[in-house]
Design a protein that fits this description.
Helix content is about 35%, strand content about 20%. By secondary structure, the chain is α/β, with parallel strands linked by helices. Helix 5 links the parallel strand 7 and strand 8. The protein starts with a strand and ends with a helix.
Length: about 260
């Protein structure tokens, strides 16, 4: 079946309360039968500093459990028209995690040129980590026209694209229309549903305004699906996994017939 990942934002409550570390969530993910886990850079900070020991523990847990790892980095890939000076540092962290992919915000790419693409590809090859960009919730990086233009500029590079089904709503964009427009570029799919009443906020699948099954159908069947929204209980998480697995299984069977 299609690869299914848990983003550690699912466990936001425990992580923010310091009841859990990300390294302790690998066994949870393994027990739930998923393919991998997406860890978040912001949760590696303690007292303002990156906890390198915790990064190493996550890498060890990846080896022990056999789970695939993605790395979510809430920083810009491009700053003032050039590649971030911190990019190699981020990729070193990703390598320590045994991550196969590192996701960043697009940032301020300006006119992406051949030299920038070559620099990115050199780093990707050196660290064996795929870099993906994401449509985020900001006006700067969340407009469909902007995201589409960035993907077009990078189409001949090794840069991938993490499509976030919920973030579009923060810019008033229909996720399905966005998926139809940029679906062919998607290499990772961040799945979530969003409700509008009382302000935009994530909810369990089927409780919001997004036709998530329809949006998911716009990307290729080999694209990993990542659950990325806070979930309060283990029972709710199991229910969400069951919903997604049913849809993925039905789609797989439909493709066979």
């Amino acid at each position: 079946m299609r690869a299914l990942f848990l983003n550690t934002l699912i466990f936001q409550k425990d992580l923010q309360a310091k009841k859990k570390r990300q390294s302790e969530l690998f066994q949870t993910a393994k027990a739930l039968g998923v393919s991998g886990i997406e860890v978040r850079r912001e949760y590696f900070f303690e007292n303002g500093s990156l906890n390198w020991k915790e990064l190493k523990r996550c890498g060890q847990e990846a080896e022990r459990t056999g789970l695939r790892v993605f790395y979510s980095i809430p920083e810009k890939l491009f700053i003032n028209g050039t590649c971030s000076p911190h990019l190699e540092e981020y990729l070193k962290e990703a390598a320590l995690l045994h991550a196969e992919s590192a996701k960043l915000n697009i940032g301020e790419p300006g006119e992406i040129n051949e030299a920038q693409c070559e620099q990115l590809e050199r780093l990707i090859c050196n660290y064996s980590v795929q870099i993906t960009i994401e449509n985020d919730q900001t006006e700067e990086n969340g407009q469909l026209k902007f995201v589409s233009a960035a993907l077009e500029s990078l189409k001949d590079s090794l840069i991938g694209y993490t499509f976030d089904s919920g973030n579009w709503l923060w810019q008033g964009i229909d996720p399905f229309e966005a998926a139809r427009r940029v679906g062919n570029a998607i290499t990772i799919f961040h799945l979530k549903d969003v409700a509008t009443k009382g302000g935009l906020h994530t909810v369990l699948l089927g409780q919001g305004t997004i036709d998530w099954k329809k949006v998911l159908a716009e990307c290729s069947d080999d694209v990993p699906v990542v659950i990325e929204y806070p979930i309060d209980t283990c029972d709710d998480l199991k229910d969400e996994l069951a919903k997604i697995r049913t849809v993925l299984s039905e789609r797989k069977e439909g493709a066979k017939s």
